[in-house]
Amino acid sequence: MHSLGDEIKGFSKNRLKKQCTRVTTLSGKRIIETWKGSLVHVVDDPDQPDGPTCGYVQDLSQDLQMGVIKPWLLLGSQDVAQDLDVLKKYKVTHILNVAYGVENVFPNEFTYRKLSILDLPETDITSYFPECFDFIDQAKQEDGVVLVHCNAGVSRAPSIIIGYLMYNEKLNFARAFSVVKNARPAVCPNPGFMEQLHKYQDSVRRQFDITHEKTD
After folding, report:
1. What is the distance between the alpha carbons of residues 216 and 212, in angstroms, rounded to a whole number?
2. Dihedral sign (CA 168, 170, 174, 178)
3. Are 197 and 121 in contact (CB under 8 A)?
4. ∠ CA(127), CA(130), CA(133), 5° rounding?
5. Structural domains present in the chain
6. Catalytic amino acids?
7. C-beta separation of 48 from 121 below 8 A
8. 41 DSSP β-pair partners
9. Which residue ranges does the record assign to the Tyrosine-protein phosphatase domain (predicted)?
10. Strands 67-70 and 73-76
């Protein structure tokens, strides 16, 4: 019976089978990579399909699911923000656009606030809170209905609303997240935003304690 040491000593690279990997690039081109020693040999895939292809699965379906956080506070994707019928159905009057590369479509129909925020873990999402919260409060004070949207309605816009509920409703993170998640199940802030929201909870708690002490 051979030991592991014997197996290792008897190892030879020449006994390894050549490994081929089919790769689809971002542009949709398909290539085959074959390792030969320490070098990689690249050739076009002979089974490349005719016509244009994509290096990812395109989702061309519209996301018109409106998350109703409160009767006057809504959450959605850019698709919702670009559908006038849906906006009218929910009686939207104000739109907070925190998407990147998405213009305000109906400037004559709604009151807009546009902030181009990148959906990256290193983006300081909390630095945008004051301006966003002021706009949301403005809509509320004017008896309006505000839609908060980003590109997919999954990370940036939900993070803004979670922060707003924590600040305005004095909810802890778990409760605020649950409210938003129940209203729009697709919600999933990126890891950086989640970490910032947890820290923001502590900041709000300290601020509330200070305010509470002053009013006693």
Report:
1. 6
2. negative
3. no
4. 125
5. 16-55 (no CATH), 67-215 (3.90.190.10)
6. 150
7. no
8. 34
9. 65-206
10. antiparallel
The per-residue pLDDT for range 74-92, each reduced to its tens digit, is: 999 999 999 999 999 999 9
Closest Cα partner for 177 from 64, 94, 75? 75
Sign of torsion, CA 166 171 173 179?
Answer: negative
Kindly calculate the radius of gyration of the chain based on its CA atoms and give it in whole angstroms: 25
What burial class does residue 152 get, using C-beta atoms within 10 Å of its C-beta: 0-12 exposed, 13-18 middle, 19+ buried?
A: buried
Residue 37, token pair as written in the block: 């020693």
DSSP calls for 21-88:
EEEE-TTS-EEEEEEETTEEEEEE-TTPPSS---SS----S---PPEEEETTEEEE-HHHHT-HHHHH
Q: Give the Cα separation of 44 and 63 in Å (integer).
A: 36
Furthest CA-CA distance within the chain:
83
Neighbours of 210 (CB within 10 A): 10
Q: Which residue has the tokens 């509920």?
A: 165
User: What is the C-alpha separation between 44 and 33, in angstroms, rounded?
Assistant: 9
User: Which tens digits make up the pLDDT trace of 109-136?
Assistant: 999 999 999 999 999 999 999 999 999 9
- Strand pairing class (30-36; 20-24): antiparallel
